[in-house]
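Here we describe the complex-level prediction in full. Unlike the single-chain runs in Section 2.1, the three entities below were treated as one system.
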Amino acid sequence: MTTAAEAARRPADRPVSRAIRLKKSPLGRVLLKVPFWLLIAAIFVYALFPFYWALRSAFMPAGELFNTPIQYIPHNPTFENFRQVWNAPFFRRSLLNSVIVAGSVTLISLAIGSVAAYALGRFRFRGRAPVMYLMLSMTIFPQIAILGALYTMISNFHLYNKLGALILTYLIFTLPFTVWVLTSFMRQLPGDLEEAAYVDGATPLQVFYKVLLPLIAPGLVTTGLLAFIAAWNEYLYAVSFIQTPNHYTVPLAITNFTGPSGSAFQVPWGQIMAATVIVTLPLIVITLILQRRILAGLTAGAVKG
Amino acid sequence: MGAVALVAALSVVAASGAGTTSSSRASLASKIQPPKVPNAAAIKKKYGGQTITFIGDSVGNGHVRDTNLATRFTKDTGIKVNVVPHPAASDAAYADLVRAFSQKSSSIDVAMIDVVWPGAFAPYLVNLKPKLGKQAKMHAAGIIAADTVGGKLVAMPWFGDFGLLYYRKDLLKKYGYKAPPKTWNDLFKMAQKIQTGERKSNPNFSGFVFQGNAYEGLTCDALEWIASAGGGHYIDGGKVTIGNAKAIQILNAMAKQIGKITPRGVTSYQEDQTEHAFTSGDAAFARNWPYQYGISNAAGSKVRGKFSVAPLPHGTKGNSVATVGGWQLAVSKFSKHQGASVEFVRYMTSKAVEKYDAIFNSNVPTIPALAKDKQVVKTNPYLKPATANTPRVARPSKFLKTHYNEASKAIYQGINQILNGSSASSVVPQIKSKLQQILKEG
Amino acid sequence: MSTVATPASAPRRRRRRTTLQRRQSRLAWLLLIPALAVVAFVAAYPLGKTVYQSFTNQEFLAGLNPTKWVGLLNYRVLYHDQFFRDSVVLTVKFTVITVAFEFVLGLIIALVVNSKFKGRGAMRAVMLVPWAIPTVIAAKIWQWMLDDTFGVVNDILMRLHIISHPHAWISDPTWSLASVCAVDIWKTTPFVALLLLAGLQVIPRDLYEAAGVDGANALQQFWRITLPLLRPAILVTLIFRTLDALRVFDVFYVFFGQRTDMQTMATLTQSTIINDGHVGYGAAMSVAIFLIIALFVVIYVTVSRVTED
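The structure predicted for the assembly as a whole is:
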């Protein structure tokens, strides 16, 4: 592999290949751009079309949703679905509940996870690998298998129908991933980073808090977002441990929408699509704002392998 | 992440019939008030001040109806009723009850249970025969039979539901038919002719739609085919009967029509897709529960005023039948307020309250006499005598008890395979042996 | 993210002092207490109970039948259970197909997005949309889009004259697996693309420039520069995607319900426990699934160690 310096030393009269000449010509530049932009367009459509479908359905009157021929753009756009969703008695409350649950789970995972990552990433001791794999094994068990035992635990601790039940049980899948990602971030930092701090008389906890934690901030953002989304979208434990509508989280609220007929058989597609849009947009916005941080976070975590 | 019943919730299995409110129906619904509690003073004296928990209909108009009735009940009797909506998804609701019962929890006093659950929950429910036996006589015999396990009346019928044939009377007229089909062969012929004609202008048109997905709804639909053809009821008198020739014959006949007069995708259809197809004018015939009536007749529906209902067809030598669906009310054996709970059930399953249910939420009443009430028929037009009096057939949950779900799964999985192309003569014996194995397990 | 427990590079000074090492060890374990407490509290009991249940004949609605210890009976039955075997085969098939497609597509997308062009930021955000929608809702949307009467996919394909009549993508056994794979690929390719993109961005640009001046074409640059340096990111992506694919549940449940020929390991377990009520047998199934997935982890760890040189 030649370095830039070596390339510079190369005789300037070396013939440039035909391919490079073509690429640099005006015609070449246009020709290369067209398939490139087609590819970009294809990616856009592929990623966004179903979301567009949800969006257009959210703006259609419920009765017209299944009419043939299919309307690609609503002929009679309406805000009715959004209005119904927003006014559904438990929907707004469920947004709050979900924020509380997902937010708590995220903060707890990050707090516990980062401390654990400090131990696993900056210390040498026997039992390190087993602990890492113990964390991984927590996520491999099918959720449905441990549901019964969890239910018993939850009722014994009088947490049934309380948000605390969800905060506790969601840690099962957020903590392992958090620990693993943050551990790899910790490991990437230079080995003698703590030395200077120790020389200054810092305690290990101060080292963690003041030196290491700020440096792995991108990792905290990444895992925080992943944990938040996972907790936000979780359904099985929510439906098993929450009973009354005032404690519903967003997925529960969405499944309890009823169509205009009031029958349990009728799936209220318009409302579900409207709710999807309402619930997904903030996630997308947050992701947009944080995407630079996420990428930086994933960069540091992924590359080290 | 697991999202088990989220999906089931978006395509629920159990019946809880209802219909949309059209303008005149809406005004009726809004005017009606929960009826008085009969004998309120006596009840108040005995149980006043107690609190009971009622696991009722899922959030929505059903929950509103429950709270209205509960409020009235509390006002008159002083018994407080804590109304908790069950999850919209049938298997989540089932799992909740199982957990509560197996932990002998006293947190549930009265529960709303599906018509196929009495067999499973019987050991955990109070026998209502002594106190409510007389009132039970008012209700449809078929449902009472389904709610009686081992001689005990473990639940009172609350809403009924039954299979109907929806048909486009305008299209029947257009193609020269004077009446809806009486036999399945008639239906196949009529559907084919109408479909061929309509496809010229509407390529999405199909002759017949029903619930063909591998789920509980298929057990209901197939029961109607088989029983109406003289093929029994999967299990009769404790013995597995599905292996008989008539059953195999009708299943083959249905399977042959897949992709011909039915959409190829009908083997993924549940109630919702059936309703969409019919309401958007893309089907000549549909099998569905009464709830579809109001939706198909609502303002904005493409088939408003153009359809009617009839009993489902039968085999060449058989009778029309309708599978029973719907919900019951039961009292938990572990309840600390059994007396008050029974009084609540008595109120909720009374004629006056069922009339309220029918008008307020378009629920299908389980008391046949109500089919003669003018106001009830106005909000539930499918209750005309021709359809209301169709003999009801029940799924064999009585014999299968706690194993009903597993057995039904064997049935609908097998029939779904047949509809998707497997030969009935090889699949049906498998269903039969699986059912026999389950029955033996007891 | 490392799947191999390679030690962090510790400052040289610490290696010589064993008392310091012991102190380190103690401190490390102290720091791990919160995480281990959560594991013990929330996970150990349920996991342990599940393993215990797999040795019993416990039922959901036991009624009058007591639960008793049956030893390895459930596992013996499981070994001969054709449904379980079919579900394992289907799940592995699904995993191989989706991970392969997601990897290739994700790599292409990552390469495209990695090159400098206007709107790169918007492109990155757009990529994330499928990931942000709850899986079950996404599955429901796709089920609707693939419907044979109202589905927009059939509509578009017919308008473009790619197909002559509507296909029942979900019902038709020929297309069932393809349709469910298509949804999963849509949902998770962006995530794969993101992980690979992160890996791409760390590769220094001047390596490509120098190679270009040397006359290496794009393909050669890809094979000799990109792929080797991307290896760590690729391994991480592959293992997490594989683990997730092996546990797939939502999409299959939405599309196929209880259809016999389309059960995955997870949907079959759920059906066995909740629908059939066989808690003990379902627990044995869960343990078996755990071991199968653990096997994949071992394979990855071995392969990544072997190819490290």
